TrEMBL record:
GO cellular component: plasma membrane; plasmodesma
Topology in the lipid bilayer: Multi-pass membrane protein
Keywords tagged on the record: Membrane, Transmembrane, Transmembrane helix
Protein family per UniProt: Belongs to the tetraspanin (TM4SF) family.
Main localization (coarse): membrane
Organism: Zea mays
Protein name as catalogued: Senescence-associated protein 5
Compartments where located: Membrane
Pfam families assigned to the protein according to its UniProt record, in alphabetical order: Tetraspanin
One example of a Gene Ontology biological process annotation: auxin-activated signaling pathway
Transmembrane parts of this sequence: 6-29, 41-66, 72-97, 237-258
Keyword Membrane annotated: yes
Length: 274
């Protein structure tokens, strides 16, 4: 095998390695089952895209190793298309997950959540579709997130709970918003204030019933979006690093492929003249 083909095979092997974190991230997103994972958004597309990248990279490695120029040409075209789709997905993820609905709660270590802080697309996807929200709400209730919080024995006095760092789901769905002025009894049981809580529409929606809690609150929808946003921000870090490395190695691979073609043409010309 020619030197350029050897280099092309090595580069395609590096491309193959770059696709593994992308496929692994997609599988990680698809396999999660916590309360934060109830709003399933672009999980399987990432897993499928990672798998396709992996298969195309394998085809490119095989084409370079056995010097199959037709297979290499198809590989370069398919890889360019898949990288473009991956970049579009990353841009979309950064755009919809940029804004946050979290805001500081006075005298608390945790944050409260409002829908208004999130992108309009994200709000429309989860909060503005009643049928989808009913499914997400049932999933959050069945996940046991609030039940586990209620069973946490580390909160002996209210101050310990106030200084805890709750997840978006725990803060938005398992307790009333801080502005309502409810008094702490335990993580999922709160006593009402002396006056009617009119500061927030969620105040009247709160219930100490373990099956109700604040699942009907806008803050719960915001908490779900907060959990989805955090999950996406964690997932985009390895995706971005792998994508940058993939593009760099792919560009070098294209150059090596052209060099291999030039070397092959020169060899044919030389043999034809001697």
């Amino acid at each position: 095998m020619a030197v350029s083909n050897n280099i092309t095979a090595c580069i395609n092997f590096l491309v193959l390695l770059c696709t593994i974190p992308i496929a692994a991230t997609g599988l990680w997103l698809a396999s999660r089952h916590g309360g934060e994972d109830c709003a399933r958004l672009a999980r399987w597309p990432i897993a499928v895209l990672g798998a396709l990248l992996l298969l195309v990279a394998l085809a490119g490695f095989a084409g370079a190793y056995w010097n199959r120029r037709g297979l290499l040409a198809c590989y370069l075209f398919a890889m360019a298309a898949l990288i473009t789709l991956l970049l579009a997905l990353l841009v979309f993820a950064f755009a919809v997950a940029h804004d946050s609905g979290a805001y500081p709660a006075p005298g608390r270590a945790y944050q409260d959540y409002r829908l208004q802080g999130y992108s309009s697309w994200l709000r429309g996807y989860v909060a503005d579709d009643p049928r989808r929200w009913e499914g997400v709400r049932a999933c959050v209730a069945a996940s046991g997130t609030c039940r586990k919080l209620a069973m946490d024995r580390s909160f002996i006095v209210p101050e310990q709970f106030y200084m805890s760092h709750l997840s978006p789901i725990e803060s938005g769905c398992c307790k009333p918003p801080t502005v309502c002025g409810y008094a702490y009894a335990n993580p999922t049981a709160w006593t009402g204030p002396a006056a009617s809580p009119a500061a927030d529409a969620d105040c009247a929606a709160w219930s100490n019933d373990p099956g109700q809690l604040c699942y009907a609150c806008a803050s719960c929808k915001a908490g779900v979006l907060g959990g989805l946003r955090e999950q996406w921000r964690r997932a985009t870090v390895p995706l971005l690093v792998a994508t940058v490395a993939l593009i760099f190695v792919y560009v070098v691979g294209c150059s090596a492929f052209r060099n291999a073609q030039t070397e092959d043409l020169f060899r044919r010309y030389k043999w034809g003249n001697y």
